[in-house]
Design brief:
By secondary structure, the chain is mainly alpha-helical. It folds into 2 domains: about 40 residues, no CATH class; about 55 residues, no CATH class. It contains 4 helices and 2 strands, in the order ααββαα. The chain has a two-stranded parallel sheet with strand order 1-2. The radius of gyration is 16 Å and the shape is globular. The N and C termini lie far apart (about 35 Å).
């Protein structure tokens, strides 16, 4: 909460790890200049060309399931009130994401 997401990602080596492993990351505008494998939406003060607008729509569509999963986790307060080991919380997050993905496709 106190640290900007990009600052935290850099401090924990996430940006470098994604770059080293060539992992494509779809991020929001706050992550501009995070690295070669981080894709952010285009923005500008003037109207964007149609191909930029299409890119932004596609970018948002691909990020939506993950954003919804994080919103659901926050609404359940799961991460704040978890009583399991921090090593196991990743499985819980993956399970919630899987369940939400099933909602979209089912």
């Amino acid at each position: 909460g106190r640290t900007h997401d990009l600052t935290a990602a850099r401090a924990h080596g996430i940006v470098q790890a994604c770059l080293t492993r060539q992992i494509l990351v779809l991020a929001d505008r706050a992550h501009q200049d995070a690295g070669a494998t981080v894709r952010t939406p285009y923005y500008g003060h003037r109207e964007l060309p149609e191909h930029y607008q299409q890119y932004n729509r596609d970018h948002a569509r691909l990020r939506a399931p993950g954003e919804c999963a994080f919103a659901r986790l926050k609404s359940w307060r799961l991460l704040r009130q978890a009583r399991c080991s921090t090593n196991r919380i990743g499985r819980v997050v993956a399970a919630v994401h899987t369940l939400l993905t099933c909602e979209y496709t089912g």
